[in-house]
Amino acid sequence: MKVNALVCGILVGIFAFAASQAQADQMGELCSILNAGRNNQAALNRQIANERNPLKQSSLQQQAGQIERQTAASLNNFWRVNNNQFTNFTGTVSSFNVMQYNVGPGVMLGIALPCQYNLSFQFIEITNPAWGNFQPESQTPLSKWRPALENITVGDTVTVSGRLSTGRPLAVMTALQKRGGIAYTVPDEYLLRENAQREDESRKDKIIQGIANHLSGKWSGEWELGGLVNPIGTNKASFDLDLNENGSVLTGAYFERGGRTNVNGRVNGKQISFGYQYTDGTSRTFTGTIDATGGISGTWNQNGNSGTWKMFKKTSSSESPATAASQGQQPDPSACKVTTLYLGISRIVSPYKGGCKAGMADGQGTFSAIVEDAPGVTSVKGNFHEGRLNGYATINGPTVDVHGQYRDNRPINAKARFAIKGVQMYMEFRNGTPFVVCKSNRQDEVNCTDRERQLIPSFHTN
Fold first, then answer.
1. pTM for this structure?
2. Using DSSP, how many helices (H) and how many strands (E) does the chain show?
C-alpha cells in the first residue's frame, strides 16, 4: 500500500507497510519443505535400523546427515526469499504464559503450525526503563496488542502474519485473527523504520548525485580561520565561488574580501575538492562532502593550518546570505531554502518566510505550495531545522489538514485528515508509525474503530 495513494503526497514514503507481498501459499511451501525432509529422514532411519552391514549403515547415516543439512539450507533459502516475513499462517495456540521481566510485564505466546513448526512471540511492556529498552527487532509491544491477546486462549485456531527476528528465536507479530473473529493489525515498527531509513538514504543519494552533476554556478559560504593569523578580527570569513563543471573536473574563481583567485578541483560522487594558490606560492585546499540539503561542507588545509568550511549554491542573482553576513547584514529570509523531501510537494508558490541559518530554514517559518494530487494551495507552517520540519507543524489546504510533531519532514505523533480521488481518510501517527487508518470506502483500514471513523472528513473534492 503506497502512501502517495493515501495522503495526497503529504506523507510520501512514511506509510510503507513493511510486510511484503507473500506467495499464494507461503505456509504450504514451508510445510512441504519440512514434510519432505521428515519423510526422507524417516525412510533412511528405517533403512539404518534394518541394515546389518556396518559399512552400508555408516553410508546411510551420512546420507541422513546430508538430508538434515539440505532441509536446513532449504529453510534458510525460504526465509531469505521471503525477507523473514510470513503472511496468513494458520495454526493453534499451543502456549500462552504471562511473564514478569525486569523491564516490565510480558507475554510469551506459542503458535503451532500443522507441519510441526512453532512460532514464538514475546510481547513486552517497558515499565522499568532502567533495566532495558524495548527491542522492536525481536519483541512485540504488549500495550498495542493487549485487546487482541485478551480474546484468545490455548487451543484456539488463529491466523497470524509477521516477521522472524535475526537468528529466528522469536517472531514479531503484525496481524492476528481468531477463527471467526476480526483481524487485528499493528505495523512492524522495526521494519517501518528500516524501510524508511533505506528509502531516506536512497532519496538522499539521488539528491546528492543530482547536486554533484550540477555544480556549475555561483556559490557562497564561509570558513573558520583556524590557526591562521586573523587580519580582520573575527574567527570567520565569507567567500563566493563561481564553479564550472566538466565531467569530474572543476574550474572557476574564488572571491574573498575583494580579491579574485582562480581555482581548480575535482568531484567524485559526493566528495569534492578544490584549491587555489597565492602569488607567493602558498596554496590552500578545500575538501568536503555534498549533503542532501544542497550544502557542501568539510575542512581546509594551508601550510599545516586547518579549519572547517561550508557553502550553499546561490538561489538567485541577488546577494548571497554569506556575502550579506560578511557585510554585517542579516540574511534575507526569502533566500532561505526548504527541503520538501517526503512532503509530496510539486511546486512552491509562496517562498519560505521565517527563521534562517546558513541559507536554510531554521526556526519558525511558513511557505505555500502545490501538493501532488491535491487541489488548490496548501500552507505549511511550523518549526524548521536545517530546511526541514522539526517540531510542531500544521499543513492545511482545501483537502488537507495535518497537525502534530514532525522530525525531518516525517510525522512522528500527528493526526491527518485528507481526501484523494474521492476517498476521504483519517490517520493517526504514533511514534512515527501509522497506527490508525480510516477510509470512507473502508478498504485497507488499520485499527479503525467507530470513534475514529467519526473523524473521517467530508472535504469537497470537486
1. 0.51
2. 6, 23
